[in-house]
Write a structure and sequence with these properties.
By secondary structure, this protein is α+β, with helices and mostly antiparallel strands. The chain contains four helices and seven strands, in the order E-H-E-E-E-E-H-H-E-H-E. Helix content is 24%, strand content 30%.
Amino acid sequence: MFELRTLLRIKAVGERHSGIEAALKRAAARAHLKGESITAPWMIPPEHEECRDDVWILDSPLPPESRLATHLEFFSKLLGEAESYLCQLKAEGASIEILCWVKTDQFTTGFHIPLAIMDLRLLRIGVEINIVVVNLGGFPHHIDPGHPL
C-alpha cells in the first residue's frame, strides 16, 4: 500500500484569504482565522484548539496513488503563476508550505523528486516542502542491534 496526501498551507496572512484565492485562481479547501476554534485531528482523541495563525489550505486534486513528483509539479506550476503576490506575502511574514503525508505498509519507502520540478520561482518565493512518512505495520517487531538501520 502506498498513499500520498499533499496540501498547500499558507499561514500568518492576516485575513488575506480572498487575495490568495484570486492570485492562485483556486478556492481554499479550508481556511481559518487566528483565534478560531478548530478540530485538531492529530490529537488522540481529536480535540478542539485555538488556531494560532490565519491559515489558508488547498488540498491537491490529484489521486492519492499519484507519484510525489506529480503532486509537487502541480503545486510548483500553481505557485509559480502567482510568484509576485506570494513573494509579497512572504515579505509580510507569511509562511508557504507544501505538506506531504506518505502512508505505507512497507518496511522501506522511497520516492524520487526530480530537480526539474524545483522551479526557481519556488526558491525565490521561499516555499518549504515537508514530508512525513507514516508506516502502518511494516516494521519488524524486533530489530537486531547490528542491523544497519
